[in-house]
């Protein structure tokens, strides 16, 4: 890369650190400020933060790589998520606003017992340490291709930078950093698309023609039901359950429901996230098809033996003009940062509130804020170490790996949230054993030939079904007023007609 590219990157990274420093004054006031931004975030900013968080470097690099190697079947998962937003706005958002908890797992204790709170929190922490490792690893590949620097040094540098500005700025710093990173992401992918199209003889028409003729959008086989392959019908069903954990039981998203001033603003955040999610499809899947057409016309430009996740980084290095390379690299870095910073703050909230403050409630607020920052530091080190392992073992196909991990750790927890929210008979014994058995079963199920899309279905329904059956077999009475959708009194905050319809 040129000096101009490096200058663009340095300016961007300095800006991210500046945001952390700016919000450090308010983030340390209390755990409410550090974890929930004091409810000061506008809905559109919270929505862009959710989008940037769920996007990650997994999307920025692996989805174009997946579309380059395969086709657009995975895009139907994003369509399903967008279609589910109105249901979340109508039922889930008012429910969590009424609960008014710092972590999602506080609800599990109110509804069941402390075991479920700690269990859910630990599952989240473990999952997000693994997730952070993946989203540190992917930009490490890109930067290594661009600069030739040692990948171990790069992985450590990415982890350290994310830790610093998350450590300083708290959730408010994380969200406003995500907003800037979201714009960088959009700008970076748009520039890459423009450059790719100008390098293809026939432009966008040729991309569409090649995509249709070579099955790079969909094929007739993609419309059949399959237990071992990813197809459109299985994606439409499976994506509902895979993403259920993200929006019902995952702290990094649920935490943002209480960062806005009202339930209506939170509704706006999810609609913003939905529209940005739909925009992701033509941008990132389209980039993959553009890469396929570009290198089909000029195969000599593609490095021999390159893996699918490395195609887009190679295109960035060799085809983008001076300055734009630095911007797109900044976008890759932004995709990683937005996810890692959110994960760091959220898992810190889980450990601090669900474990430390839950069992040691008498300390001053300054003690818990200090604990939260120490957790961020520790988690950053652990995830960076895991990323180094991935570099050493040369991992590939990271999108599928990530979603498999989601099915293992997330789906049973989503099931227990459904058990608590939508049934009145679910109790602590049923919730605990149903979730534990389902989590253990998921490990063995993932060793089968089933496609990962079934992992979420089995995990959610297994945890919900087992939990309910065990609950009706074992006594476990507890006051559930305001803790299920059937018994919760009407929330003081009401949705406007725009969102309630």
Automatic annotation (TrEMBL):
Membrane topology: Multi-pass membrane protein
Domain of life: Bacteria
GO CC, any one term: plasma membrane
Keyword field: Cell membrane, Ion transport, Membrane, Sodium, Sodium transport, Transmembrane, Transmembrane helix, Transport
GO terms for biological process, alphabetical: sodium ion transport
Subcellular location: Cell membrane
Pfam families according to UniProt: SSF (PF00474)
Entry-linked InterPro entries: Na/Glc_symporter_sf, Na/solute_symporter, Sodium:Solute_Symporter_SSF
Transmembrane segments: 6-23, 44-64, 70-89, 118-137, 149-168, 180-200, 230-249, 270-295, 315-335, 367-390, 402-422, 429-446, 452-474
Molecular function per GO: symporter activity
Annotated family: Belongs to the sodium:solute symporter (SSF) (TC 2.A.21) family.
Name of the molecule in the record: Na+/proline symporter
Species the sequence originates in: Endozoicomonas elysicola
